[in-house]
Each structure stands twice: as structure tokens, then as C-alpha cells.
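During the reporting period, we have paired protein sequences with C-alpha cells. One record among many follows, to show the layout:
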Amino acid sequence: MIYPKIIILAVGGSHGDFLINSCRIMQGEKIENNINKVGQSIFSSQFKNITRIAFIKGKKQDLQFDEANDIELSHVWYDDFQNYPSKFFYIGFSKEILPIIIKMFLAKVCMNNLQKAVDYFNYYTIDGLSKKINTHNISKILPIVWWNAQKKYQKQKNIEKIEMTDLYDYNKFLEVLKKLDVSKKIKEKNLKKYHAEWQQKNSIYINKIKELKKNI
């Protein structure tokens, strides 16, 4: 069993994938043409994929990894994590901005196709619940599921919160990377370019979140 040094827990609108890819840039990897036209930052790993499908139709599979990067992402928190030697962080957000995050997810992952969202959600859901989810209620169910996911993240011992909105301000973002121990001056030129591209392609959502944050 191989354990990452750091595990980031996150849901919502590609924030976690963006942060992981930024870490990879600072570790010297070449990340090019990685942000698609709808602003989704593409990241895939064995760890992310296994933890995402560890519950299929409500039945838990064994978490076993024969490879892992130093920093990995999981959308789902498991009791097993309590025994991991890894350091844990989660990307946190206030309840008020959930509707915007849901819109980001629907646009990027599902191309605003509600049936795709239903199919995506039902793949990981127990049969009894999946029969109750449809295109009419998926937009109401997702905020509940994602808010509960964030509560589960907080069960992890000694976990540290990364404020979602700190990813938008470049200077605050650098401070986040320092927490993750991947801040390197020599890599900042590539990072700044990547950050600017992600910001630009997600500006419609980021600006709404920033504006809402001011009034919370």
C-alpha cells in the first residue's frame, strides 16, 4: 500500500483539479493545454479514480493503491483515511456560494445536460436512492450531497482548511502553495500563466463568488 504525502479533499467546479495541477507545475511537471474550453482543469490519477469509485451502488470496495503521487486529490472521504500517515487538507466554502459551484459543475462536467448529471451521480449511489433522482430534482440534491461531503472532510483528524476563494487571489494562492510545501520561485512564471488562464476561463463564476462573498 502506497500513501501520498498530502491528500486534498474537494468537490465542486474543478477547484481541486486546478490546485493539484498547480502543485504539479511547482514540482517541475509540464502542464500544457490542460484547461479545456469550458475552464475545466484536467487531472487524473489512480488514487483519484479509485477513491471516486470505492463506493459503487453503495457497496464499498477496498482502497488499495500500487502507485501514488506526493500530492493527491479525493472527492470522497473514507474512514480508512484516519489511519493514513498523510497530511490532509480540504477546500472549504460557505453554504451561500453552493448554487454557483453547482452551476460550475453542471457546465464543466455535464455540459449543462441534467441527464448527464443524473447518470454521473447515480453511478456512485445505492440503487434505492438512485431511483428517486431525476432531472427535476438533481439541482436540489447536489447542494445537499456536497455540503454533507464537506462536513465529512472535517471528520479527518488534524485536517487543515483551504478557503476556496483564496485560490482566486494570486498572492493568497501562493500562500496556499507554501502550506502544501510546493512553493518555488523558479516555477512561478509557469504557475502565474496557468493561474491566469484558469481565472479567465472561469471568470463568470469566480466574479459571482467574489461578489457574493463580500455580502456574506
Observations:
- Residues 6-93+153-214 form one domain.
